[in-house]
């Protein structure tokens, strides 16, 4: 028999929607360069004028030394190996409320083990705990039937896109700049992205008249706009929306029949006393809109907050204003992956129902939380103040979220140099920063930005020493860069 | 302002591909009836001539009382709460090899915690361990770069479908009967299902000439057939393919340029000394086909095997014969959900690299494994022997997998009664079984079957007492049923 040398599969025969996903999923130019520099530094520590790469390009705190919350991990360990609950030593090694919580959680699970498939929406008792947490946050009822426990926040976003998108004549309003989850999920399903720019000069507020204009424009082109994505607190932009702006968004969705997809994963990351997080559900109810008025999905996950449990892949979405018929279809999509991981489900319930005053773990829980949030807050303030003070740079307040997103007015000669290298100017700036300082940031073009403006996303880090190092290196680099390309 | 009472979202406006998913995702008629009977029994234990519902409709052993493997759970608990590794009590409470393994695993993870995002393919050191396990299973090299760690086995199946399916002119060859994962994934992406019937009279073997006929027929209709799904050991059919049959499948895929999607999740569930599990990769290499000849994906998960860790959502796919360009596109799709849960990744590495002779945990690991596999094997044999002995019933050997799939020759009067109730005859049989005995099985129509034949899937359970109970009740029911509908 002849042996054909040809492989079965070529790139050109793959789903073009997958091919259309940006190459940044392969790391992007800046991240790839950082990776190779890191390897170089390992074999030759003197290769660069710095001894480490500082990753401000993503938020993955535990991989960078942040310790997980003790109470959360005690409960997870006890639930994973319940045999510990029968040992007398356990009472000396674990806090009493962690032991009580683990017993309570195991009591909620058929078979009392984390090894069984759960209900597709997640373990009912854990959803009850989460609904209680949401109710206490909002001062409004929340129901376990409305909650779908998920592997992080990406999974439920993909589920909702699956449900809403029929083809390329369906569109979703999506903020620019925004992180890639929403745009990628749309690309993969062939949806039309209907972008709306956040208003940088007003602290990345949502400009409703611009939003309405984009909606009308898409509709005039025959696009059925199914929903609107809003990210609050913002990513990468770090704003916390004011209630008045949230009301406008809710009213628009209600009047235009749009599903409001509210990314609320940074709800615990607030760095200013002037603002507080309001869920879109609370805002909708406050202006009198009930279940029958607006379809609203709120996404949350265990990857953010002060605890940063990214690798545990816990998350939920709360659906309100969905008819039971539509909800059945959501359930079908959720059931395609059986259920989310039980350990992540448990962790999500702990996040929404942490130790209370009087519990043995409360003081340590509170201390860990406050210490990290205070560090993040200090870092955010220091970064904003530094970036705002640099020549040609402006930086909106980091009221929440996990990053700042300064704008750099690049000198024409820098832009020319970038063009000559066949690079986007913001990528050029980020690469020069990396080569000079070891600091990795993400160029604004990855998130989208008003044409002709240039930004970068820099992650807020919970280490004061590192913050100081980043700031001083950044300052020196930027001044030298502006000097070099001064015309 | 006027308050429109209309909701934003109606079922008719949803993605028709979601609507096309069968309602069995909402539980199916039999499962829903079982659920309501269970609730009835709780309030009125005398409601039926039995006191419990026996779930033979799915495999979820830990939710039915099976204990998780001790070594696996020790390692997970230590990795969740590494603080335990610093306590002197730990050496009395955990086995020494679990402690050593946890230290080793934490050493592989940046930040030494399970709370960080990993590489999109999974933690490299864990992939190394899995590749070592695969290499030792097959006696062939395996590479960590070929492994993608995933949340169970459903996630990578959906990934591959995303990659391969461009639209409704693309098709995938899929066995009938088969569980719904593959067909649902195709429906959701609008692919054309190209079915091939397994040959029941020859122990559910793959009939290659029939397969080739289906392929040619699909092609003659303009369908681009992209791949072939094969499930070995079979689900729901329980066969273990002979090597000769596997060779034929590999050759067909190679000659026809089909990606071979090999569901090998039941590789450890083998109940006969006459057969052993051969991976498709091993078979392909044994007939001289290398990387350049055939694109092959092997799926595995922690949900099956004797350990049945369904709720932990661990899994992997091994890709061989994929060019680096195609693999980049797989990587893009994988990156859309950041990474799979780290706890599931760890568990998958333990499954593929369990305690060895000489390790402290080896005797207990071995005893747990053998005890469960022996019970499953006894149950499989008892079920097959009973079902084969019943009037009008035939049942192929359960060589592997987790279920038997007997054929019932229903009397014409039973079929008439079903038709009169507007029910599929196999659903009618399963409902009558449930009402009489409390035993829940899945009607064959859920998996697909040759028209005019009727089957049910009955899960093999690892409890000897329960097996006896199931068998005696089933026998009494079936005899009465056949008597009742005797013409």
TrEMBL record, chains A, B:
Molecular-function annotations in GO: L-alanine:2-oxoglutarate aminotransferase activity; pyridoxal phosphate binding
Listed EC numbers: 2.6.1.2
Which pathway or pathways does this protein act in?
Answer: Amino-acid degradation; L-alanine degradation via transaminase pathway; pyruvate from L-alanine: step 1/1; Photosynthesis; C4 acid pathway
Gene Ontology process terms (BP):
L-alanine catabolic process
Look at the named UniProt entry and state the broad enzyme category this protein falls under. transferase
InterPro entries recorded: ALAT1/2-like, Aminotransferase_I/II_large, PyrdxlP-dep_Trfase, PyrdxlP-dep_Trfase_major, PyrdxlP-dep_Trfase_small
List the keywords (alphabetical): Aminotransferase, Pyridoxal phosphate, Transferase
Domain called Aminotransferase class I/classII large: residue spans: 108-467
Could you name the domain of life of the organism this protein comes from? Eukaryota
Point out the coiled-coil segments of this chain: none
Q: Which cofactor does it need?
A: pyridoxal 5'-phosphate
Q: Which CDD domains match?
A: AAT_like
Q: Which Pfam families match?
A: Aminotran_1_2
> Which family, according to UniProt?
Belongs to the class-I pyridoxal-phosphate-dependent aminotransferase family. Alanine aminotransferase subfamily.
Q: What does this protein do?
A: Transfer of C3 units between the cytosol of mesophyll and bundle sheath cells to maintain a nitrogen-carbon balance in the C4-dicarboxylic pathway.
**Subunit composition?**
Homodimer.
Q: What is the protein name given in its UniProt record?
A: Alanine aminotransferase 2
Q: According to the entry, what is the taxonomic lineage of the organism?
A: Eukaryota, Viridiplantae, Streptophyta, Embryophyta, Tracheophyta
């Amino acid at each position: 028999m002849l042996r054909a040398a040809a492989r079965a599969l070529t790139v050109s025969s793959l789903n073009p929607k997958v091919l259309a996903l940006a190459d940044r999923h392969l790391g992007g130019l800046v991240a790839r360069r950082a990776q190779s520099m890191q390897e170089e530094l390992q074999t030759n520590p003197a290769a660069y004028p710095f001894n480490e790469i500082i990753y401000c390009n993503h938020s993955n705190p535990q991989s960078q030394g942040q310790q997980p919350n003790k109470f959360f991990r005690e409960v997870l360990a006890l639930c994973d190996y319940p045999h510990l609950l029968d040992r007398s030593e356990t009472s000396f090694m674990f806090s009493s409320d962690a032991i009580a919580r683990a017993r309570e959680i195991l009591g909620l699970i058929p078979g009392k083990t984390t090894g069984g498939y759960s209900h597709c929406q997640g373990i009912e008792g854990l959803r009850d705990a989460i609904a209680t947490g949401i109710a206490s946050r909002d001062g409004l009822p929340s129901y376990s039937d409305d909650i779908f426990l998920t592997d992080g926040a990406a999974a439920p976003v993909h589920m909702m896109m699956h449900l809403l998108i029929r083809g390329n004549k369906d569109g979703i309003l999506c903020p620019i700049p925004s992180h890639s989850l929403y745009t990628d999920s749309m690309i993969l399903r062939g949806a039309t992205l209907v972008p709306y720019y956040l208003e940088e000069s007003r602290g990345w507020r949502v400009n409703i008249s611009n939003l309405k204009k984009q909606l009308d424009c898409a509709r005039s082109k025959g696009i059925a706009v199914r929903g609107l994505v809003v990210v609050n607190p913002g990513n990468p932009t770090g704003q916390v929306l004011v209630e008045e702006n949230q009301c406008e968004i809710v009213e628009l969705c209600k009047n235009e029949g749009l599903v409001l997809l509210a990314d609320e994963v940074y709800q615990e990351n607030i760095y200013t006393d002037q603002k507080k997080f309001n869920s879109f559900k609370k805002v909708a109810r406050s202006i009198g809109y009930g279940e029958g008025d607006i379809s609203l999905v709120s996404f949350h996950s265990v990857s953010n907050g002060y605890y940063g449990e990214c690798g545990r892949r816990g998350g939920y979405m709360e659906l309100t204003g969905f008819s039971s018929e539509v909800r059945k279809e959501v359930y079908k999509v959720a059931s395609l992956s059986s259920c989310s991981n039980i350990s992540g489900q448990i962790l999500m319930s702990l996040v929404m129902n942490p130790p209370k005053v009087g519990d043995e773990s409360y003081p340590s829980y509170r201390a860990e939380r406050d210490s990290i949030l205070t560090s993040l807050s200090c870092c955010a303030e220091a970064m904003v103040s530094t970036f705002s003070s640099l020549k040609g740079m402006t930086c909106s307040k980091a009221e929440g979220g996990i990053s700042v997103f300064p704008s750099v007015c690049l000198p024409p000669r820098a832009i020319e140099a970038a063009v000559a290298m066949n690079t986007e100017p913001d990528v050029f700036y980020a690469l020069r920063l990396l080569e000079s300082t070891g600091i990795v940031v993400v160029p604004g073009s990855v998130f989208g930005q008003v044409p002709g403006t240039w930004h970068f996303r820099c992650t807020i880090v919970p280490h004061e020493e590192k913050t100081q190092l980043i700031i001083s290196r950044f300052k020196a680099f930027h001044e030298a860069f502006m000097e070099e390309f001064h015309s």
